[in-house]
Amino acid sequence: MPSESAAAAAAAAAAMNSVGEACTDMKREYDQCFNRWFAEKFLKGDGSGDPCTDLFKRYQQCVQKAIKEKEIPIEGLEFMGHGKEKPESSS
Fold first, then answer.
1. Which reaction does it catalyse (predicted)?
2. pLDDT < 50: residue spans in the chain
C-alpha cells in the first residue's frame, strides 16, 4: 500500500499543468484514468493491464510537440514510458 507521502506526491503531480497548455486537459484525463485504475484494480491485485495506455500515448505526443515548439533542450535525457524498461544501474 502506498505511503501517505507517495499519495501526496501523486496528488500534487496530478494538480500540475502540462508543459504545453494544449496538453493540460489530456494530462488530467490520463491522471484520472491511471489513478482510478491504480486504486481500484492494481492495488487490489489485478495487474492485468493498464487501460490508460492510449490516453498516455496521445498525451506523450502532445508533450513532445510542445517541447519542440518551445525549443526546450532535452538532449541526453532518457524518458520512461509504456513499453520501456527501467535502465540498468551502472553501479
1. a 1,2-diacyl-sn-glycero-3-phosphate(in) = a 1,2-diacyl-sn-glycero-3-phosphate(out)
2. 1-3, 82-83, 86-87, 89-91
pLDDT on residue 70? 78
The ranges assigned to domains in the chain are 18-70
51, three cell numbers: 487501460
HEC string of the chain equals CCCHHHHHHHHHHHHCCCCCHHHHHHHHHHHHHHHHHHHHCHHHCCCCCCCCHHHHHHHHHHHHHHHHHCCCCCCCCCCCCCCCCCCCCCC
pLDDT at 59: 92
Check if the beta carbon of residue 58 is closer than 8 Å to that of residue 73: no
Q: Which residue has the cell 491485485?
A: 45
